[in-house]
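To close the chapter, one final illustration. This time we ask the reader to focus less on the individual chains and more on the assembly as a whole: which components sit near each other, and how the overall shape emerges from the parts.
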Amino acid sequence: MLEVKNLSKTFSPGTVNEVRALQGVDFTLAEGGFSAIIGTNGSGKSTVLNAIAGTFQPDEGRIILDGIDITRWPEFKRAALIGRVFQNPFAGTAAEMSIAENIVMAMKRGRRRGLGWAVDRNTREEIGARVRALKMGLEDRLDNPIGTLSGGQRQALTLLMATWLRPRILLLDEHTAALDPKSAAKVAELTSEIIARDKLTALMVTHSMQQAVAMPERIIMMHRGKIVEDYHGEMKRRVRIPDLVETFNRVTKRDLFSESAAVMLMGQYR
Amino acid sequence: MSLVLGAFTMGLILALLSLGMLISFRMIRFTDISVDGTITLGSSVTAVCLASGMDPWPAVLLATAAGCAAGAVTGILHTRFHIQELLSGILVMTALYSINLRIMGRSNIPLLDVPKVADGAEGLVAILAGAGGKIDLLGWPVPIADVAAFVSSLLICVASALLLRYFLLTHLGTALRAAGNNPQMARAQGFNHQAAVVFGLALANGLVALAGSLLAQYQGFSDVQMGIGMMVWGLASIIIGEALVRHNGIGLMICGTILGTILFRLLIAIALRWGLNPNDLKLVTAVFVFLALIAPALGGRIKARLRQGDSHAGS
Ligand SMILES: Nc1ncnc2c1ncn2[C@@H]1O[C@H](COP(=O)(O)OP(=O)(O)OP(=O)(O)O)[C@@H](O)[C@H]1O
Ligand SMILES: [Mg+2]
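The assembled structure is written out below.
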């Protein structure tokens, strides 16, 4: 279970570049639940995921994972509890290292790395078996640098790595967005499969309304650093793409109004 | 023959420096320019220890440990205090200049009649050679001491290379390489990237100082100026090595680096023999590294030019 409590973050405070990326974000993910975050560009979706993963310290708020307060933990320490797949297929793997070596890194996520051989024969067999299950023909290329693979293949392997040791939470940041439609569908399918099989708690950012409707059991909509809508339970099951689009329009229109009001006020001050 | 043997011995000793730089420049991708200071640190510590009557092996170990410490300091300056890579290296190198002078107490210590690590090999070679003081190498008489220096350098270099290969293929070594290749990925897999930088630099500079220690013993002196330009020489050796093996696995990269260093020393020996002014050596090396660095881009441009020419010719 993940509890995010009143999370706030302002980037470059007090400068012209000030961005209030998160403004009191509050939500709880139930154990074994699969949720999606959707929202306009710059609404703070990635920032929420990064706060959970620990790439920066929030100004305010707490992040509690399975009862452990991880708000002050450094990123690498949190990785023991968290699996991640990034939007950029290059981000999640070490390009010049082999498939096997990359996966070995994931097999020791959050554990002691000693002076034993990294890729011994047993390990190879284990890796081969699970890579074969991806049905991408990669089991014969375990020694090839991972940089020689396609984005879709790399993303599938990153997903495999993120879930090799069961994470307390799986974070997916638009992990199919950079892929061609066919690979995107394949990786999305694999994602649903793994989450269902291992009963993972997962949080996925997506721009695809279709994915948001089809895959998770809950949709959180963000706008301007705040949660503006939260579809879950029966409500989520009934929601369709047009409903989401309508909510989007309502939210952004409200925004337009307040912006034009601001412009009016500015005019009076001059 | 003596000249070739000397170039080989020198190549094997400096291969340890190149291997250290392989870790910093290529594995953890840290442009560590403190190397010039660390190799002198290794030689200074060794010189003082040997001159004061210490056994050679403990002296070598002490020198290596000093190198590790210097490397760790560079790493800590960068990771803890957020000083840029280059500046961290420069600060440590500058500080080491004074430290090396302090350690030695003067700018040069000769090491003529002290025990050295090559002595063990000398006994062995002497037994093989029998009496006479010279050994017959492909028809050329070579002093036993030279052969012994070669043999001991070879053994130390090979042992270090094997250990390094083993380490880089362990879980810890793999994580270290991953941290250099993609820090974001290493962190996401729970590996502390900053600790990796400190540890990697310690390891790298340990090897560099080991090279310094052996160099002092081989040359028979330690001098505070001896490190100047060593980093560029190491870089040149790594580049030659990469041209030889082309990034094919850890074992080959290590072999390539060693062969590259030896080849580079041979080229230098030949160039000097042909009358290259020793004072110009560093300039020549710098130009060589410059050319090697721009070669890939230059090659691409020439290829593109040629292709363009083809299409013109075709139309
Ligand atoms: N490290 C950072 N430094 C400065 N500003 C940042 C940083 N990270 C995010 N921001 C800003 O915070 C806001 C929210 O960014 P975020 O990446 O969370 O948006 P997003 O909802 O993921 O958008 P997208 O759909 O484009 O990925 C943006 O205005 C962005 O410019
Ligand atoms: Mg984003």
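Chain B has a mean pLDDT of 90. The domain at 2-276 of chain B is CATH 1.10.3470 (ABC transporter involved in vitamin B12 uptake, BtuC). With these observations in hand, you are ready for the problems at the end of the chapter.
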